[in-house]
Amino acid sequence: MENFQYCLPTKYIFGQGVSSKVGQTISSLGYKKVLIVYGGGSAVRSGLISSIKDQLASFSIGYTLLGGVKPNPRADLVYEGIEIARKEKVDFILPVGGGSVIDTAKAISLGVADSEQGDFFDFYLKKRKPVSSLKVGAVLTIPAAGSESSTSSVIQKTIGGHIIKCGCSSELNRPLFAILDPELTYTVSKYQTACGITDMMAHIMERYFTNSECVDVTDNICEGLLRAIIKNAQTVMEDPRNYNARANIMWAGSLAHNNICGVDREQSLEKQKAKVEELESKKLQELERISGLTSEQAKEYLLKTVEDEVKHETAVLVKELETRAKEEAFEERSDIYA
């Protein structure tokens, strides 16, 4: 077992109907102006955004809105959010949605509080480290990414015609509170539910597979979570409005990524990532040496090479899937006429 320090400052407010406690919770913390961040129209159509606005108004808390967050959140909306938050003198950010919405809110909070007022994406490119942030509290509607209590945020930006997707991990990213009301997930589609379940299982496995020995406690936490997810996933697929199954899935999603599963162990993917970054750096240096390209030209060349490889591998995979689908369709027809 490895040495560790663990602190989780996020307060969980979990259960049936707790989405009605948003206004009360923010008021108790003393904040006066909130930026509500959300995604598409579902949070509006469900009446959730309207309910939150009414709650804030009842506690004399001002608010402004920023909608339109998409999956794989974009930097453009973050810049817009930073501008709005500064103009409106916002002192608290409230994402209402899933991981993409919460990640966007975290990025806005870092950008607004940046004393240098530079590009927030510098934090994601590891050019600078954040030293302050506006506080964030989350209302979760899609269990998946675990961003409601994690240190991480992932944003993508188009630079030089290439989409650069980077993460920023900092304790400053931990929300003050996470409101988890399983009833809010009743209308999540089967497809989105399955994607979320896959995401949380991946988070657990990233920590579970390790070279560290004698980590029986967290091994059992990981295994118990995986068993609970598998069991309740089957129930949710058959009965999407089963409260207890939805509740178990929602809670598992948070535990999967708040790092309770990985505190006492070497998290091998982190070391693998470090090795990949080291190899990439060596590749760049070698490419610059033998080609005479500048550092930026070498990066662009490597990005284009990787992009071409991914396109080729994707085309091969699509062809394999199409072939498999045809074979399965033929087998089904054969069974019918057998």
SSE map:
Elements lengths: L10 E4 L7 H8 L3 E6 L3 H4 L2 H11 L3 E5 L8 H13 L4 E6 L1 H14 L8 H4 L10 E6 L11 E8 L2 E8 L7 E4 L9 H19 L7 H23 L4 H15 L10 H24 L3 H43 L1
Parallel strand pairs: 1-8, 2-3, 2-4, 4-5, 5-8
Antiparallel strand pairs: 6-7
Number of strands: 8
Please give the radius of gyration in angstroms.
22 Å
**Strand fraction band?**
5-15%
Q: How do the helices and strands follow one another from N- to C-terminus? A: EHEHHEHEHHEEEEHHHHH
Count the DSSP helices.
11
Which residue ranges are poorly predicted, with pLDDT under 50 across at least 5 consecutive positions? Answer: 334-338
Spatial strand arrangement across the major sheet: 1-8-5-4-2-3
Report the principal-axis shape.
globular
For the structure shown, list the relevant keywords.
two-stranded antiparallel ribbon; six-stranded parallel β-sheet; 338 residues; 8 strands; 11 helices; alpha/beta; disordered C terminus
Polypeptide structure, described:
There is one protein chain. By secondary structure, this protein is an alpha/beta fold. It is built from eleven helices and eight strands. The strands form two sheets. It has a six-stranded parallel beta sheet, with helices on both faces. The longest helix is centred in the last third of the chain and has 43 residues, at 295-337. The N and C termini lie far apart (58 Å). Residues 334-338 have low confidence and may be disordered.
